[in-house]
Amino acid sequence: MRIRAVLLAIGVIAGAAVLLYLIYRLPNLLAEDRFRELGPKDRLDATAALRTQFAALIGTPIALVALLYTARKFLLDRDKQDIDRFSTAVAHLAADDPVTRSGGIFALQRLMEDAPRERERGRRLLARYLQQRTANGEFTSAPGDLVDAVAVLRSQLTSRHRTLGLDLTAVRLPAADFGDARLPGALLSRADLTGARLRGGDLREADLSAANLTGADLRDCDLTGASLRGARLNDAQLSGARLAGADVTGAVFTGADLPAAARRGLAAGEAIGLGSSPADTQTPAAALPDA
Q1: Which domains are seen in the chain, by residue range?
Q2: What would the pLDDT profile of 162-183 be if each residue is shown by its tens digit?
Q3: Interior CA angle at 101 toward 88 and 195, to 5°?
């Protein structure tokens, strides 16, 4: 490495010497015949003018090369800074102190905002963090770092920025707020999202098999082509949800608010409680007998 640096320095010095020689000698070589017709003073003035022009001509590509080198160095330094910031955020996520973990989550959020190329990796890291943090034990209420992680992940799952096939398998986040999140093709099998807010979300082609969505808010949610095999949707709110092509084999819809329009096209015989909804079974006021 040192030999390479020495050779590079020698090359730069040699190149500079050649350029200086050309700037000094080229005017005399190119305009020698014309200079003979001039007096000593005019010859010196003409030579100086030509040297100035040659210096500007040769200096322009040199300046461009220097600019490109500076830009490349800036990009490399920025990449190194982003890697360092990412590593620091990961270290904070692994800390025992929940406040430090929250700090790592917000540091990761800032990194994703500053460096768009890190967004995909950051979203997947947050998904893995939620999986690992909720793998053991039940939470009567979600710890602050989990709430922060869900909020940051949700902010990164917009119509402009989304991750296809985000892996949240078996995550346990009761009452989590993923409203309006874009999660097409997400892996949410065996996830516990009891009472979660998913209203207006994009869950097309998502795998929600055996997921617990009891009491979840799925209004206006796009579940087109999603797998709901064996999922529990007891008392879930599904008004305005799109379920075209969804696999509801073994799914439980007991007590769910699922209007007839949303149920159209579903295999009612393959699900539990899909035959009717509370709204459909309610007796119209006009049909009630007079007191």
Answers
A1: 1-30+39-115 (no CATH), 162-281 (2.160.20.80)
A2: 778 999 999 999 999 999 999 9
A3: 135
